[in-house]
Automatic annotation (TrEMBL):
Superkingdom of origin organism: Bacteria
Lineage: Bacteria, Pseudomonadati, Bacteroidota, Flavobacteriia, Flavobacteriales
Species of provenance: Flavobacterium laiguense
Protein name: Cell division inhibitor
InterPro entries: START-like_dom_sf
SUPFAM superfamilies from the UniProt entry: Bet v1-like (SSF55961)
Stored Gene3D superfamilies: 3.30.530.20
Family matches, as CDD domains: SRPBCC_3 (cd07820)
Length: 160
């Protein structure tokens, strides 16, 4: 199984409390996800994020095909980080770390995703042709939406 990594860093002109309040509320995920993904939360308990929380979604990543996706919040350190992992869905492996660090001018937000696709060599081809580009587009969109929500001036999205 080939595991891929996607990492982004974004500066947010807000307090750590403001960032944490927004990003630790699963209901806000839809606000920063492209509409083209057909992203819809179908079940969660309307609680602020906590370890063990299960969130269910429907997504349409391509060709209008609706897929179910279930993630679990596996770790949370208040105002520092949280980790979500796929339990059921389109990936054979999905591990997403979200880090928040106060800076003199706001918050540095770092996302690190490790993922793998099923189907061996076919999964590698699908990653090269579709998934890698789609994840880039999703994180670019998220950067723009976070800017609109928090930043008066454009932020600097650093790509790795």
């Amino acid at each position: 199984m080939k595991v891929y990594k996607k990492e982004t860093v974004q500066h947010i002109n807000a307090t750590l409390d403001e960032c944490w309040a927004f990003f630790s509320s699963p209901g806000n995920l839809q606000k920063i996800t492209p509409k083209t993904m057909g992203f819809e939360i179908t079940d969660f308990d309307n609680q602020s994020m906590y370890a063990g929380q299960i969130i269910q979604y429907k997504i349409s990543p391509f060709l209008g095909l609706k897929l179910n996706w279930v993630t679990e919040i596996t770790k949370v350190k208040d105002k520092a980080y949280f980790i979500d992992e796929q339990r059921f869905g389109p990936y054979s492996f999905w591990h997403h770390k979200h880090f928040f660090e106060a800076t003199p001018t706001g918050v540095k937000m770092t996302d690190i995703v490790h993922y793998a696709l099923p189907l061996g060599i076919l999964g590698r081809i699908v990653n090269a042709l579709i998934v890698k580009k789609q994840l880039k587009e999703i994180f670019d969109y998220r950067c723009v939406k976070v800017d609109q929500i928090f930043n008066k001036e454009g932020s600097k999205l650093l790509r790795f």
